[in-house]
Design the sequence.
């Protein structure tokens, strides 16, 4: 993990030099997030409304750009300027980095009063705690390794959702021959990396994913198995339409909805789009995990409260933290977002079959040691290492680079980035 620059650390020290006074003010919070698609906007509006219902003044600071890379640049600039937003959607090792730099408020009081330790699974606690204390509040669990399929389109070639990568290729070839786009995809680096990591998991298996993408084992990164992963990525490139470069992920989801493409590989924020359009799982669309041996690629959104001055802002941060992990809000928000609650004790009654599958699979993956952090979505890796994976996945996907060359470049890039 790369440490923050001296300039950033001193900006943080200046911003936090004043200690908080007793809190009497009306709660207020500027909230920096990147939830701007249809389903995402509905989910974030639910938080805004819950905050307003308790007297909170919400200052919305959305930064468009799936996966959050654009937002990360805005956050750094704001912190450097000594003016961090009160609440920021960040996750994974980024939380640890900001906590280490002294930028985050300690949420121990809210956590103790709501007994977060008792309701959050270990995998989530590990992400949002720094040196044993809560420094972020988790909103949800998003699974990344999903296929979203249009059953009517698959039926045109007599196919159902593929359960192995060979089947995936055979079905995609049939669709191509029938003049149908097999894979709806948006050519943005983080989306290429999303497909790449599901292929690493599927072709390499759980242990290989862990060695290569989590532990950065050079033998795994430079192996024949990784060559096979890039071979499969080359096939995937042949299954997307020519207009894919730069397309937003939600527009790719819409292609599946409209029957213009058969499948999309994307995390379950895609389900938020289907839901926002009134589509029903099992009828209008099918969700299935991408082929793997019981793997589960975990992504979890959370909000960290940055050290800010002002009783109103601190009251706002405390209120937000309390609301976000409330049982009722966890249900409302995650129904819109396509994710499942971060809390384990929320009633399952209102959730659809895709969500129930995610809940069950997450528990069995945690028990069986097959629960893995997503690289593309900043749980397994962040910063320069994630950047290096994404760069190579994208460079390979968008050129005629051989699999062998991609593997060599990957090994070099990861060595340099560490
Ligand atoms: C986030 C989701 C978001 C998606 C698209 C993911 O990394 O975890 O909350 O909906 O990116 O922007």
Sequence:
């Amino acid at each position: 993990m790369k440490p923050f620059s001296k300039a950033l650390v001193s900006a943080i020290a200046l911003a936090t030099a004043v200690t908080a006074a007793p809190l009497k003010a009306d709660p207020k919070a500027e909230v920096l997030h990147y939830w701007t698609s249809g389903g995402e906007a509905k989910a974030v509006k639910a938080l805004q409304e819950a905050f307003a219902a308790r007297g909170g003044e919400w200052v919305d600071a959305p930064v468009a750009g799936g996966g959050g890379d654009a937002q990360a640049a805005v956050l750094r600039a704001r912190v450097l300027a000594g003016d961090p937003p009160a609440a920021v959607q960040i996750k994974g090792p980024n939380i640890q980095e900001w906590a280490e730099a002294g930028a985050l408020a300690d949420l121990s009081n809210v956590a103790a009063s709501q007994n977060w330790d008792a309701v959050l699974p270990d995998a989530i606690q590990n992400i949002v705690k720094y040196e044993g204390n809560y420094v972020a509040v988790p909103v949800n669990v998003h699974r990344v390794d999903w296929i979203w399929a249009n059953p009517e389109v698959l039926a045109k070639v007599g196919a159902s959702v593929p359960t192995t990568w060979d089947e995936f290729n055979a079905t995609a070839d049939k669709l191509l021959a029938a003049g149908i786009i097999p894979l709806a995809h948006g050519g943005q680096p983080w989306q290429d990396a999303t497909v790449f990591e599901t292929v690493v998991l599927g072709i390499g298996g759980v242990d290989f994913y862990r060695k290569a993408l989590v532990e950065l084992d050079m033998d795994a990164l430079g192996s024949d198995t990784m060559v096979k992963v890039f071979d499969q990525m080359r096939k995937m490139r042949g299954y997307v339409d020519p207009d894919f470069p730069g397309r937003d992920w939600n527009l790719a989801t819409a292609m599946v909805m409209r029957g213009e493409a058969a499948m999309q590989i994307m995390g379950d924020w895609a389900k938020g789009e289907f839901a926002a359009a009134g589509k029903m799982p099992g009828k209008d669309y099918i969700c299935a995990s991408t082929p793997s041996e019981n793997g589960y690629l975990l992504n979890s959104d959370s909000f960290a409260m940055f050290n800010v001055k002002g009783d109103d802002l601190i009251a706002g941060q405390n209120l937000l933290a309390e609301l976000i992990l409330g049982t009722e809000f966890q249900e409302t928000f995650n129904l819109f977002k396509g994710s499942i609650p971060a809390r384990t004790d929320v009633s399952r009654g209102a959730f659809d079959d895709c969500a129930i599958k995610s809940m069950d699979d997450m528990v069995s993956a945690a028990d069986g040691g097959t629960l893995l952090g997503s690289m593309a979505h900043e749980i397994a890796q962040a910063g320069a290492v994630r950047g290096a994976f994404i760069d190579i996945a994208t460079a390979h996907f968008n050129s005629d680079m051989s699999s062998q060359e991609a593997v060599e470049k990957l090994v070099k890039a990861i060595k340099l980035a560490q």
